[in-house]
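Notes to self after the Tuesday call (sharing in case useful).
The group wants a holo model before anyone commits to mutagenesis around the pocket. I volunteered. Ligand is beta-D-glucopyranose. Logging inputs and output together so the record is complete.
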Amino acid sequence: MSLRMSRRDLLLAGAAMPVLLSVVPARGEAQRIETLLDRMTLEEKAGQLTLVNDPFRWRPGNVNPDAFDPGQQAVAQEIREGRIGALFNGIGAAQARYAQHLAVQESRLGIPLLLAADVIHGLRTIFPVPLAETASWDPDLAARTARAAATEAGASGIHQTYAPMVDIARDQRWGRVVEGAGEDVLLGRLFAAARVRGFQGDELRDASSLVATPKHFAAYGAAEGGLDYAGAELSERALREVYLPPFRAAFDAGACSVMCGFNTVNGIPATADPWLLQQVLRREWGFRGYVVSDYTADAELVSHGFAEDARDAVRLAFLAGVDMSMNSRLYQRYLPELVAEGVVPMARLDDAVRRVLRVKEALGLFDDPWRGMDSEREARVVRAPAHVALARDAARRSVVLLRNEGGLLPLRPDLRLALIGPFGADADNVLGPWSIFGEREHAVTLEAGIRAAIADPDRLTVVPGSGIESDLPGGIDAAVAAAGAADVVLLAVGESQWMSAEGHSRTEIDLPPPQAALVEAVMQAGRPVVVLLKTGRALALTGSVAEADAIMVTWFLGQEEGNAVADLLFGSAAPSGRLPVSFPLRTGQQPFYYARLSTGRPAQAADQAYTAHYRNLPDGALYPFGHGLTYGSVRYEPPRLTAERLMAGGRLTATARLVNDGARDADEVAQLYLRDRAARVVQPRRLLKAFSHVTVPAGGAVEVSFDLGVGELAYLGPDMQPTADPGWFDLWIAPNAESGVAAAFRLD
Ligand code: BGC
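Result:
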C-alpha cells in the first residue's frame, strides 16, 4: 500500500510542477520575433545559434582547449553577415559596445549579440569557489555573491553566465567537485535555486542581471571512476532522484538556459540525447529556454563514436535538442544545408532560433542593445567595497573547522607563529580554478592576512618547506627549524587549484608526497599544529596531518582568503561552516557519500567478516558530511516529537534542545535526517531533509524544531512516481550525517 500525495506534498518532495516561464515574451515582443524569423535567411538563422570565443575583448588564456580562432577581422565580418549571434568569455564595457555595434548597426537585420561568460564565483571580485561557499550551508549567501557577480558582469557588458554548475559529485576523484554544491541532493537543490535567483535577480532586463545557465545536463558528475569526461552509467532512478533535482530546482527558480554535458548517460552522449533534452526537459518539465552545447561538444560526437562526421554530429545534436553550438562553428557550417536538404525540418530550426531570440528579448536587448555597457558604471561597481566586504564574509563562512583538540583555536595574537608549507605566501592558489577574470594581485595570501592581524608582524616566520608536488632542497630542514622556534605552527598544505578543476581528476585524493613528508617532519618538532587545508574536493587525510591539533579546511576562498582565515584563527570571527562532502578515510572508498543505500549486511565491528566494510577500514568517514566545529561546545539532547504517528495529510514537529557548554557562542547548523525502515525501493541509510542555523549562546541552550509532513517522506516508487509507504521512520537531529539524537515515528 502507498499514500497518494497532495500537490503540496509533491512540491515539498521536489516532484513535478509547472515551470515558471520567465522567457515567454509579451504579445508585441513575440510578434517582433516572428517578424524577424520571417525575414531571416537560413544562414542568419544558423548564425543565431552560433556562439564563438570573443576576439574583441580581454579574455584570459588557458580556459579551454585551442579551437579555430580566425581573428578579429574575420569575426567582425561574420557578425556583419549575421553568421554569429553570440560571443563568450570576453569582458569590458567599451569593447562590448564595438562588438554590439557590428551586430546592431552593420548587420542586415540588426539583431543584437548575446554576450556570455563563465562567471562562476565572481567576475573581478572573487568569492569562494562554489564548493567552499556551499560549506556555509547558507543558500542566501550564495544568492548574494551571485548577485554581486552579476552586478559586476552586467556592467562589463555580459548578459549570460555559464553557471551555476549543479552537478552532484559523489566521487571525489573527479576534479570538478570544486565547482558545485557537493554530494547532497537537498543542498544541491537549494544552492542551485539560490544561485539562479542571485544571477537573474527580479528583473532580467536590469543591467545587473545575467541569464543563468545551470550545467552540465545531466549526470556529468557521475563520471565513471571520477574521470572527467568519462561516461555515466546509472539507473533512471539514480538520475531522477539524485542528479536531476538540482536542475529542476534551477528551472523552477527561473533559469532560462541550460548547458548539456560532455558525458554519455548510459551510452548516449548528453549532447545528442533526445530523452534528456526533449522528454525530460521539455515534455516533463515544460522548459522554454534554450539549450547550449558545452565547448565543441557537438564536434566531439565524432570522437565519441556516435556521429560519422561533423555534419552528422550537427544533425544528431540539433535534432536531439541542442539549440546553440559553442565554438565548434559546425551549426554555422552545416545547418543551412541540412535544412535545405530536408534532413532537419525548418520548424526545428525556427524553434531553436525563437528560443534564443526570446532570451535576447527577455534581457531587453532589442530595446537597449547597449544595456550595461557603460565604462563609468563598470569602474564604479567592479570590486566595489561592498563586494570585497561580502567576499571576506563569505570566505569566513566557508571555512570548516574539522578538529580543534584542547581548544587550541582561537589563537592569541601575540604568539610566535611559523607559517609553513607551499601555500603560506602563495598567491597562485587563492582565487580558484574558475576565477577566470580575477587577478592575482588582488589575492590576499595567508601570509598577508595573518601578518595584518597579529600584534607584532615580526613574530611570524614564513617558510615554504616543500613545493606543492615537488621537494624543495633544504626545505624540510628550514621548516623544522622554524617550527622549533615557534609557539604554534600553521601548516598551509593541500592541493593546488589545478589539482581540482576541469580535466584534473586524481587517482589519489591525498596530500602530495612532498607535502606529506614535510608534515611528518614538522610534527616531530612537537609544537601545537594548525593545518590550513587547501583543497577543491574532500581529501583522504592520512598520517600525521590527520593528527594535527587543529584542522581548518580553507578550500580556495577567493580574494579575501588571507584576511578571512586570520579573522577565524584569532577569533574576531568564529567558524560555522559544515562539510558539503564526506571526507573519507582512504581514496579507495570512492565513490563515497553519506546517503548510501542500506545493505543487507551492514558493517559492524571493524574486523567482523561478511559485512559491508573494507577489510582494512572501519565503516564510515574520517569526517562525515555535515561535520564542522564551532568555538563553542554544543551537545544535542534527545528529540521530542509532537506525535509518534503521522497521518496522511498531517504534520508532526520534532524538537531538540541544543546546549552550549563552551565559553563562546556557537553558530550551529542543526540537521534533520530521516531513514525509511521499509520501503518498496531500498532507501538511503540516512537522508538530509532539512537544516536550521541557530546561535547557541555560551553557557546557554536553544531549541530547534523541524516540521514534517508526508512530502518529506516521499521517494520515487517502483513506477518512478513520488510515493510514501506507511510504516516506521527513524529521525535524527544531528550535527552531521554520522551522529545525532534519534527518535522514530510511524506513517499511517
Ligand atoms: C566547460 C564549461 C564551460 C565552457 C566554456 C567547458 O570546458 O565544461 O563548464 O562553461 O568550457 O568555458
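Two things stood out.
The longest helix spans residues 139-155.
The pocket of beta-D-glucopyranose is lined by residues 63-64, 89, 118, 162, 215, 294-295, 502 (CB under 6 Å).
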